[in-house]
């Protein structure tokens, strides 16, 4: 992997690239209160680097939010509701510039749900994993770890969410023009930066060791098959 630093104003975002023709974009650290998964993803990327396709990997999408251990960045923004073309926030713009001119097959952006007793769930935007053996094996092995799978709604109180999951899975197709919203995946599909996306939500209450194992399994069963 090659290390790169994107500097824009007072924002510095460290990221890594593998190869000259990236097809995969990996994100973590979008929300500062979901910092546990950052190390989990780093360990998996380092472990499976040789087996992964060419990629761009951004370990900490919002450095200021992670520094504060907060959902909001230094400008008071939830970065994953702020990816619009006219947003002047330097973290938004830096992340947009990292992928400027790219056409990537897949975005995988790792998050944590920090609520008590939360379960694993996956937003599948356009890939269609539900009936594939890779998803079934992942789902079964996560369950064998003692990690629950969400059946029900993600967050009925969030107007941007309120999606329904079955055994940890929710699918929606990607409209030709992308879809509205301020999440990075919404911006990236609207602007043809990525074609499809996976958004795994790791239960925040898990021990760090178990988070590491869930993320490692996701790489094994989903990203390397």
Report on this structure.
The structure is a single chain. This protein has 225 residues and is α/β, with parallel strands linked by helices. It has a single domain (2-223), classed as Zn peptidases (Aminopeptidase, 3-Layer(aba) Sandwich), CATH 3.40.630. The chain has 6 helices and 11 strands. Strands 1, 2, 3, 4, 5, 6, 7, 10 and 11 form a 9-stranded mixed beta sheet that branches. Strands 8-9 form a two-stranded antiparallel ribbon. It is globular. The mean pLDDT is 94. Its cofactor is Zn(2+). Pfam families: AstE_AspA_cat. Residues 21-93 form the Succinylglutamate desuccinylase/Aspartoacylase catalytic domain. This is Succinylglutamate desuccinylase/Aspartoacylase catalytic domain-containing protein.
Which tags fit this structure?
hydrolase, nine-stranded mixed β-sheet, alpha/beta, Aminopeptidase, single chain, 225 residues, metal ion binding, AstE_AspA_cat
Topology:
Elements lengths: L1 E7 L2 E8 L5 E4 L8 H13 L6 E4 L4 H6 L21 H9 L5 E6 L1 E3 L7 E5 L7 H12 L7 E2 L10 E2 L3 E4 L11 H7 L3 E10 L4 H16 L2
Parallel strand pairs: 3-4, 3-5, 5-11, 6-11, 7-10
Antiparallel strand pairs: 1-2, 2-4, 7-11, 8-9
Helix pairs in contact: 1-6, 4-6
Protein name: Succinylglutamate desuccinylase/Aspartoacylase catalytic domain-containing protein
Pfam families: AstE_AspA_cat
Organism: Candidatus Collierbacteria bacterium RIFCSPHIGHO2_02_FULL_49_10
